[in-house]
Each structure stands twice: as structure tokens, then as C-alpha cells.
Design brief:
147 residues; three-stranded antiparallel beta sheet; 67% helix
């Protein structure tokens, strides 16, 4: 009897990972060309742009990034003078991160590009397929407690 194998190409977790990675890489070309950002730097910029002041821990949770990636991204955005760190008054181990004016300018420049990318991506699908993928992703997020 032969051992059971797993066909990765039809295994849903693998397919979702590959799809997310492909979409992320395609979008990364835009912010890399525009601002020379890495994926963690973009996720940090966009998280702060959307939510305002956050801690590194909150950024990591929001963006599903490991703390070392968050730390490197924060250091690079600070080097560019796109974010500031303010120590917490009650706990000096915690820093509150916020975008500077220059960081907000970069973020606001990227928002319409991100929305256009999403629109172009979804236009590759029929209206029924778009509705199905939105429902399917939402259902998986809810089932996994992610939203």
C-alpha cells in the first residue's frame, strides 16, 4: 500500500497562500516603483495611514507581520522621516508610531493607486465571480474568527 500524498495544487490553504502571494507581488511593483518600499514598509505605511497612531505590536497584529519585520519597516520609515516614535508615558517599552506629514503625503498618493489596482484585479472577473469571491473570503474570515 502506497503512502497517501497531498496534491498541493488542489489543497485550498496552499492555493490561497499562492494567490495572496501572487496578488501581493503584483501590487508591490506599484509601491516599489513609486517609493522604493518593501512589502513590510508598505503594510506599515498603510496601517498607520488608515488607523493613525499605533504601537508596533498593534501594527504586527493588524498586518499579520512578525515583530522583526515590523521593527525593520518602522526603522526604515523613520529614517525616511515618514514616521515618528513617541514613548508611552506609562510604559517606556512601548512606542506610539504615527506618520509625519511626508509619510501622510506618500500614503495619500498611494491610496488611489491601491484602489485602482484592486478595481483592475476585480475587473478580470465576471460580476458573479466578483460577488462570489467577496462572499467566500468573508465567509472564510468569519469561520476562522479573523474578522
Amino acid at each position: 500500500m502506497e503512502p497517501e500524498t497531498l496534491d498541493l495544487e488542489s489543497f485550498l490553504p496552499y492555493r490561497l497562500y499562492r494567490l495572496a502571494d501572487t496578488v501581493s507581488r503584483e501590487f508591490s511593483r506599484i509601491y516599489k516603483e513609486r517609493h522604493g518600499l518593501t512589502r513590510p514598509e508598505w503594510r506599515t505605511l498603510s496601517g498607520l495611514g488608515q488607523h493613525g497612531t499605533m504601537t508596533a505590536t498593534e501594527l504586527g497584529e493588524q498586518s499579520a507581520m512578525h515583530k522583526t519585520k515590523v521593527s525593520r519597516a518602522v526603522a526604515e520609515l523613520e529614517r525616511r522621516r515618514w514616521l515618528t516614535r513617541v514613548p508611552d508615558e506609562n510604559d517606556r517599552r512601548v512606542e506610539h508610531l504615527a506618520l509625519t506629514k511626508a509619510g501622510l503625503v506618500a500614503y495619500r498618493e498611494m491610496v488611489p493607486l491601491a484602489k485602482a489596482f484592486e478595481g483592475e484585479l476585480l475587473q478580470r472577473l465576471s460580476a458573479d465571480e466578483r460577488a462570489a469571491i467577496v462572499r467566500g473570503v468573508a465567509a472564510l474570515e468569519e469561520a476562522l474568527g479573523g474578522k
